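User: Structure please.
Assistant: Input sequence and predicted structure:
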Amino acid sequence: MDQLQAIRAFARVVEAGSFTKAADTLGMPNATLTKSVQALEAHLRIKLLQRTTRRVSVTPEGAQYYEKTQRLLKELDDVDASFSAAQSRPRGHLRVDAGSSIASQVLLPALPAFLARYPDIRIDMGVSDKHVNLIGDNVDCVIRGGELTDLSLIGRQVGSASWVTCATPAYLRDHGTPKHPSELEQGHTVTHYLSTRTGRGMPLNFAKQGEKLEILGERSVGVNESNAHVAAGLAGLGVLQTFRYGAAPHIASGALVPILEDWRPAPYSFYVVYPSNRYVSNRLRVFIDWTADLFAALE
């Protein structure tokens, strides 16, 4: 048995949902593909697929085997590509994970230009403010902000985003415009961004001429997703501190008004992060470079 061929045949059946379709895409006779999968099942002594006259379904053991072997096949393809003429033209599948506001306001609007430049790359993007497990979730890279503490990961800083503190005109009319961050602790409410790790509200940070302040304030509402966090501020639920790129359209329209502009905290650094033991394919390399160019435009 050619085990590698059998694994590829099994994977293609899982993806196509049919032996016939899988055989067509691999350019081999249906009988040959079927024998390869049967030989693999005999070698493993487990049932990978359930076949009926109408459909093919994956067994629980087959699903686990598919997930584990897909990682191996992908790494093998990456290594082959590094020694191939295809290296000059990036191609293949990228799995990327990014926070909600970064995905919706920075990456996705610019993605058509990236795909026009690299038409042979296909991207699946997970969008969530929750941190993913790069190894367990089989993700090529994630875009994360803040300090990197996991030594098993490699991070390339691609840029940073500045902060803005703001509120709606109606809120400021009713509560007044603060001149100092300490004023937010009395007579004001704050829309808190909730940490996806701890569930606690993140304090508002301020800095001026070496002086740094953290203000928690009285919480009106807490939200653990960045786009919804801005929506809460737009609803007039309290003072909002968020990335300037996310608030910029609303500031331009007058829906939000910047406050305490002379008390800006340091910009927030963003990184493209990937496992230290994973080969960096050409497609991942060009994606990282492209992301760095996008963040440069945010400054």
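Residues 163-266 form a domain with the D-Maltodextrin-Binding Protein; domain 2 fold (CATH 3.40.190.10).
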